Amino acid sequence: MKNIEILYEDCNCVIVNKPAGLAVQGGEGIKSSLDRLLTEHFGKNGESSPPLLVHRLDKDTSGAILAAKGRKNAADFSRLFGADRKAVKIYIAVCASKSGNQSQLENEGIIKEELLIRGEQKKSETKYKVIKTGALAAAGLDYAVLELQLGTGRMHQIRRHLSMKNSPILGDDKYGDFSLNKKLHKEAGLKRLLLHASRIAIKEFNIDVTAPLPDYFAGYMQENFTSFV
């Protein structure tokens, strides 16, 4: 697939490194999507049916995403990513360490604020650890690099939880600090959401795959961290 790296493939699944800006699923007004690219790629390679995506990433989030080969594998992986929570997903985010009020994050912890999902308050859990702190001289900004693991899979959960803790992800144009993002765009060249799905580990299938960070993370960190697993 053009511009999409295949990180891992076996008879059960394929894991790719989705670039930021690519929608996972097609729909009205969406010209290109990961599911369509998977269909085209594996169709050309003689596969009878394309791999089936069993979890999601936001359009603006980069990183590792798994598609299962065949309906039985799709059901098995969906269970591991869903109710069983045995598929471990690790994320890397770069956040403002101060945003108006002092950041409410500790060096590590669990955010458990409920999130409003389709009119209902839902229990939500995000585990986090600060793995690096720094400052951007160009924008006069203190920032923190976080490693995160989801305990639940609510829509935009990481982005919403960090915003609620006065530590919005840099480049987040939906839940972030809009004036700060504008300043970062102008003074530091930031054009992307700094949230990356860094790692997928599934013990049951002997899978442990890390997705390299995009180039635009380079000013904040130079390597992946995987201390949760």
Salient structural properties:
229 residues; alpha+beta; Pseudouridine synthase; 18% helix; globular; 14 strands; ten-stranded mixed sheet; two-stranded antiparallel sheet
CATH class: Alpha Beta
- CATH architect. name: 2-Layer Sandwich
Estimate the strand proportion: 25-35%
- The helix/strand class is alpha+beta
* Rg, Cα atoms, Å: 18 Å
Per DSSP E runs of 2 or more residues, the count of β-strands stands at 14
> What count of structural domains?
1
Question: What share of the residues lie within helices?
Answer: 10-25%
Give the uncertain stretches in residue-range form. none
Q: Can you give the mean pLDDT?
A: 88
Name the CATH superfamily classification: Pseudouridine synthase
Report the span from N to C terminus. 30 Å
Write the CATH fold name.
Pseudouridine synthase
The main sheet comes to: 10 strands, mixed
Instruction: Report the total helices.
Output: 4
Order of helices and strands: EEHEEHEEEEEEEEHHEE
Shape: globular
Structure write-up:
The chain is of the alpha+beta class and 229 residues long. It has one domain: 2-Layer Sandwich (Pseudouridine synthase), CATH 3.30.2350. The protein contains 4 helices and 14 strands. It has helices at residues 34-44, 71-81, 157-164, 178-188; strands at 5-9, 13-18, 52-53, 62-68, 87-96, 98-99, 101-102, 108-111, 115-117, 120-122, 126-136, 141-150, 195-202, 207-210. Strands 1, 2, 3, 4, 5, 8, 11, 12, 13 and 14 form a 10-stranded mixed β-sheet that branches. β13 and β14 (207-210) form a beta hairpin. The model has no long low-confidence stretch (mean pLDDT 88).
